[in-house]
Amino acid sequence: MRILIVSQFYPPDITAAAFRIGETAEILRNLGHDVKVITTEPHKSDAKIDDETDRLHGVLRVRVSSAEGGGTWRYVAHYLSFVRRSAWVGLSQLFGRWRPHVVWATSPPLFVGLTGWFLARINRCPLIFDVRDIWPESAVAAGQLSDTGLGFRVGKLLEKWLYDRADRITCVSSRMAEYIGSRTSTGTSVIYNGVSANHARAASAPVDRKRILYAGNLGRAQALDAAIRSFARICNESIANGWTLEFLGNGALKTDLQAVAAKSGVEGRVTFSAAVAKDDAMDELARSAVLLISLKSDAVFDLTIPSKVFDYLAVGRPILFGINGEGRDILQSTGANVGFTPGDEDSLAAAIHQMMTAYEQFDARAERNPIAVTDAYSREANTAQLASIFEGSLRR
Q1: Of 106, 125, 240, 364, whose CB has the highest number of CB atoms within 10 Å?
Q2: Rg (CA), the chain
Q3: Dihedral of CA 54/23/252/231: which sign?
Q4: CA distance 93 to 69
Q5: d(C-alpha 305, C-alpha 385), whole Å
Q6: What is the arithmetic mean of pLDDT over 331-343?
Q7: How far apart are CA 122 and CA 33, in angstroms?
Q8: Side by side, which strands form the sheet with 208-215?
Q9: What is the mean predicted confidence (pLDDT) over 11-37?
């Protein structure tokens, strides 16, 4: 098949979405499909583009306006700049006599679906619309939109419009599929996030035996200020001797979180490192004693499964997790991980204390974590399922 992927995030940008789409495109190529990707120039990292690699892999990039400075309309302008330029690039492929059999447009942002719909109509092929987060509600939870503003109302109309015009919808959790099913009659399939075979590994002894590591976005949705304060509350207890908390990543709240650490009196034991490439991040996860997943308490987050659930499981380390929904069920299933109520400092402090107190027990059980993820959430198997959905859309 000739598959056109439209995504605002793609390597070498360092985001969960970029990793997912990059790995999926590579596996589709390895399955023998002709894949082109319309995406942006890097805007979530300082990485440089390898033009020759892009050419060989059919990656077509456009420049987008900056979203720095925040504000609803700056974000909207940022998203629409991608729609306009990506639609033109997609149209130019038709002029070059490359016509896709199927278009897979992956959101958020929802606006990517406009490019997908336009190019599917022009090429007279199916549109498969991918939903990784429910938007605009997830933008509200992240502080990008107000749920009383015009942007939110327009977003809800666009959500419904795109759902109804897709030939099929893919999403990342069963609870998300239930939500989408309540909004549209378009059929929905669950394609879970997962890990590629080269990222899964057998559990081994941690190198940094008393490091708790969070790797990912340092934004408004993660409730990481609560994590710092919870850690600070038990730092003076003997059980916490030598333990540190490290944040690996970038984000809008990085400076604020550093200030929280200083105010809490633990700046020497709470450290911050810049985001790194996926392979390096996986190495850092495997080196650590304990991993941390945290999200704000918000109903929209209960519908998804953070992609780091699978990455964390893959390296065989015990996990502290403050999420609800299907992701919580997966993490609880191995007995190697300790949950806490999202955003609740008392609950997280108790979870940290429990992990430190019985660390050897949880560490021994953590060998179950990579088994759980490779058995049920292989990126290769999930992508083969996605290809079957593409093929099925051609027979309709």
Answers
A1: 106
A2: 21
A3: negative
A4: 34
A5: 18
A6: 97
A7: 21
A8: 270-273, 244-248, 208-215, 288-294, 319-322, 338-339
A9: 95
Show the tokens assigned to 14: 């360092």
Reduced 3-state DSSP string for 280-320: HHHHHHHHEEEEEEECCCCHHHHHCCCCHHHHHHHCCCCEE
* For residues 330-346, average pLDDT: 97
Residue 396, pLDDT > 70, answer no
Q: Which domains, and CATH codes, for the chain?
A: 2-194+378-394 (3.40.50.2000), 208-376 (3.40.50.2000)
Tell me whether strands 34-40 and 2-7 are parallel, antiparallel or unpaired: parallel
pLDDT tens column, 31-54: 999 999 999 998 767 777 888 888
| pLDDT of 196 strictly over 60 | yes
Residue 380 CA to residue 386 CA, distance in Å, equals 10
H or E segment to which residue 16 belongs = helix 16-30
What lies within 8 Å, CB to CB, of 168 at 6+ separation is: 126, 128, 129, 186, 187, 188, 189, 389, 392, 393
Instruction: Write out the DSSP string of 39-56.
Output: EESP-SS-PPP-HHHHHH
Query: What is the edge-to-edge ordering of all strands in the sheet holding 34-40?
Result: 59-62, 34-40, 2-7, 102-107, 127-131, 168-171, 188-190
User: pLDDT by residue (tens digit) across 267-297?
Assistant: 889 999 999 989 999 999 999 999 999 999 9
- Residue 269 carries which DSSP code? T
The pLDDT value given to residue 89? 94
| pLDDT, tens digit (0-9, with 9 covering 90-100), for 373-387 | 988 899 999 999 999
- Residue 176 C-beta-side C-alpha neighbours within 13 Å: 29
CB < 8 Å & 24+ apart, contacts of 119-122? 119/4, 119/6, 119/87, 119/90, 119/91, 120/167, 122/90, 122/91, 122/94
